[in-house]
Amino acid sequence: MHNDCERIMLTAEQIRSRVKEVAQTVDALYQDKRPLAVGILKGSILFYVDFVRELTCPVELDFMAVSSYGSGTVSSGKLRIKKDLDSDVKGRDVIIIEDIIDSGFTLANLKALLLERGARSVLIVTLLNKEGRREYEIAPDFNCFDIENEFVIGYGLDYDERYRNLPYIGILKREIYEGK
Ligand code: PRP
Predict the structure, then answer these.
(1) What is the DSSP letter of 131?
(2) Could you tell which of 100, 110, 136 is best to mutate to test the pocket of ligand 1, judged by most ligand atoms within 8 Å of the CB?
(3) Its pTM surpasses 0.90
(4) Interval between CA 104 and ligand 1 midpoint (Å)
(5) For the structural domain made of 11-148, what CATH number should be given?
(6) Per-residue pLDDT for 68 more than 70?
(7) Which residues contact 156 (CB under 8 A, 6 or more apart)?
(8) Does the Cβ of 126 fall within 6 Å of ligand 1?
(9) Which of 4, 88, 93, 102 is catalytic?
(10) What's the mean pLDDT when you consider all of the chain?
């Protein structure tokens, strides 16, 4: 698995330290609130766990799985929900925790959906931001790392469902995805 990496982009230590820093900043904003931390499966799972571990506010945990299928068409702005939240977000302060923002399709639609359902506020926290790929008008409120358009794997991110368990973020060797 490690051999499939061209190089390590972010070490486990770099991730740990930055995630802690961002989580503590976000935590300070929610001291007198009871936010709902919504993890977007599956890519956010490692980030999510490390992020919520740092919170001291009375946070509740929930998850959604969505599909960004169809994101190529700007007009087809509907999100496919594969697993919905258990919680009612009406009146809640929601923190969306996502691994990566790319075109912005997923987060633009998800934020609109949660606000439509009556969330009082929706804050977006991302691990990685590919600013150069944006097609939808949406930006994370807090982001850990800005990256270029590289094929990144590890720390939750996959290629064909593999590599999610790597403790670091690496760049996948071109031959792995081009050889298929
Ligand atoms: C990835 C990622 C975001 C989305 C970002 O999910 O986790 O949800 O794509 O892309 P966008 O900004 O262009 O919408 P993916 O569909 O690969 O599912 P996964 O999290 O289960 O890997």
Answers:
(1) G
(2) 100
(3) yes
(4) 9
(5) 3.40.50.2020
(6) no
(7) 42, 43, 44, 45, 46, 47, 99, 127, 164
(8) no
(9) 102
(10) 93
